[in-house]
Amino acid sequence: MTYLELINRVLRRLREPQISSLSGEKALFYGQLINEVKDDIENAGPWYALRTPLTGSFTPSTSTVDLTSSTNQRSYLLYQSTGAPQAFITTVDEERRLAEVTWEEMDALHTLDPDADEDVPSQFAYKKTKDGVTLRVFPTPDAAYTYRFVFVVPQDELDDKDTELLIPSTPVWREALVRAMEERGEEFNGSLEAARTQAQEALMQAILDDWAREPMTFEAE
pTM of the predicted model, to two decimals? Predict the structure, then answer.
């Protein structure tokens, strides 16, 4: 469902005229609601649609990898249910899972052992910046080993009417409807409590569907 379709779905349930562009106060208000809900629901777990495999090659004699072109400030690494990070060297004959350490521990490794021989990386750390994610590995690569990291990359704020929402759309527009009703202090086609229940049920169903598709997505409680 597109950004404009999400806004109009809420407007229809409020029995208001639909819009055809993102100009005007109505588009601004309901668009903001949609984006706020989108962010909140993205935070519910590592949705299948947001998991992004990042592949490339380490630069020999360089320990830092800049992933900001493929990530954003809200991105984070995906882990298996066992807690193992989705971080691998995939070069033939060198395939292995990398062990994660903190950024501070990585700094210590390079500071305390600056003369360590360059070799196949075995450990990694990552940190978030205002632009995305930066990685660092140890030992410093002695060759251009290929890597594969799987990050959860939440979608950027929707700002074009034709942009498709990546996560399930039903819980987003239903929760946006609830917040619109709360904001206006009115009830439309049923009670606010009923709308809230429908939004919660839509989110739970979306989570169950996502879990069935990929067990690593959500942890069972």
Answer: 0.89
